[in-house]
């Protein structure tokens, strides 16, 4: 029986094993480098599930994605492992977190993931099909930071907390899905002129 199971989405056969390795390195690395607040495997499992949960609402299979402020790898590392046919570029300006992401990429042999030790606004924009972010900044600023990376077909998936509804008041083509205290904001159809 699968440990991580979501409706309407099939995880690759190696996913669980990859997440066990990810969790092992996250907890080990976290002891000395303070990458995240995650202190045990149960909390790591919850964060892994939180990362993949919104995939059941994704109505397409994107081939290119970026993650803004990838930190300790949630949701980006988990999504890259769950979606091997989608190439992810992770933006993480903090050197110690970026080093951890490079370590995980190598340990898990994630060939569909690239890490850039810089802020997204410091890179040349290239349109992608999916933009993700968790716990970085408010939605309006995320949209502003990702200008040039999206067009009318790009889906934005932002992992938010209780203020999610406030952050999207003036946006169209938005859906919010809720699980416990998490709000998953899906935005599509912004075009390049927002």
Describe this entry's structure for a reader:
The structure is a single chain. With 194 residues, this protein is an alpha/beta fold. It has one domain: Rossmann fold (3-Layer(aba) Sandwich). The chain is 32% helix and 20% strand. Helix 1 crosses helix 2 (41-52) and helix 1 packs antiparallel against helix 4. The protein is globular and about 40 Å long. It starts with 14 loop residues before the first helix and ends in a 6-residue tail after the last strand. The mean pLDDT is 93.
Secondary structure blueprint with pairings:
Blueprint: H1 15-33, H2 41-52, E1 64-68, H3 76-82, E2 87-91, H4 95-108, E3 113-116, E4 130-134, H5 139-145, E5 155-160, H6 164-167, E6 174-179, E7 182-188
Parallel strand pairs: 1-2, 1-4, 2-3, 4-5
Antiparallel strand pairs: 5-7, 6-7
Helix pairs in contact: 1-2, 1-4
Anisotropy-based shape: globular
Question: What is the distance, rounded to the nearest whole angstrom, between the alpha carbons of the first and last residues?
Answer: 45 Å
Instruction: Estimate the mean pLDDT confidence.
Output: 93
Cα radius of gyration in angstroms: 16 Å
- Number of DSSP helices? 6
CATH architecture: 3-Layer(aba) Sandwich
Give the biggest sheet. 7 strands, mixed
CATH C-level class: Alpha Beta
List keywords for this structure.
194 residues; alpha/beta; Rossmann fold; seven-stranded mixed sheet; 7 strands
Summarize the structure.
The chain has helices at residues 15-33, 41-52, 76-82, 95-108, 139-145, 164-167; strands spanning 64-68, 87-91, 113-116, 130-134, 155-160, 174-179, 182-188. The chain has 194 residues and is α/β, with parallel strands linked by helices.
